[in-house]
Design brief:
Blueprint: H1 14-22, E1 28-34, E2 41-42, E3 48-52, E4 58-65, E5 74-75, E6 82-88, E7 97-102, E8 111-116, E9 122-127
Parallel strand pairs: 1-9
Antiparallel strand pairs: 1-6, 2-5, 3-4, 3-7, 4-6, 7-8
Length: 129
C-alpha cells in the first residue's frame, strides 16, 4: 500500500496581497538608435503607445530622454548616431507581443511592429527600422 503525502498549500496573507498590488510597477524602457543621416532633426509625439496585439490595451508614453516632444524639434548631428530613450506605462503581464506606434495626424509616424516581450521590459530598436 502506498502512502499519500499531502503537501500543504502556502496561503498568502492578505497583507502580502495588498503589498503586491500597491508595489510600483517599473516602466517599459525603449532605447532607440538613429542611423547616421537618418534625419537632421527628430521629435516624438505624446501620442506614442505600446499596443498589445492580443487585446485593446495601450501603454502610454510617460517620459523621454535625449529627444524633444512635438511640436519642438531636436537637432541631430550629421553623420553621427543619435540615441534616445522612451519610457512607457507598464504592460499587463499577459502581453507577449506588441507594437510601438506613434499615432499622429500626418504621414510617417514611427511604427515598430511585432516586438516580442522580454523579462526585463527593456528594448533596443533602430531607426530606420
Amino acid at each position: 500500500m502506498s502512502a499519500v503525502i499531502r503537501i500543504p498549500v502556502r496561503q498568502e496573507s492578505p497583507e502580502t496581497k495588498i503589498l503586491q498590488q500597491a508595489a510600483p510597477l517599473e516602466p517599459v524602457v525603449v532605447h532607440i538608435e538613429c542611423a547616421p543621416y537618418y534625419a537632421h532633426a527628430i521629435r516624438v509625439w505624446r501620442t506614442t503607445y505600446l499596443i498589445d496585439l492580443d487585446s485593446t490595451h495601450r501603454s502610454a508614453l510617460i517620459d523621454a530622454k535625449n529627444i524633444t516632444f512635438h511640436p519642438r524639434w531636436r537637432s541631430v548631428r550629421p553623420g553621427y548616431k543619435h540615441r534616445f530613450t522612451l519610457y512607457f506605462e507598464p504592460l499587463p503581464k499577459s502581453v507577449r507581443q506588441f507594437d510601438l506606434q506613434e499615432i499622429i495626424p500626418e504621414p510617417r509616424g514611427w511604427h515598430f511592429p511585432g516586438i516580442m516581450r522580454n523579462r526585463e521590459d527593456v528594448y533596443h530598436l533602430n531607426l530606420p527600422n
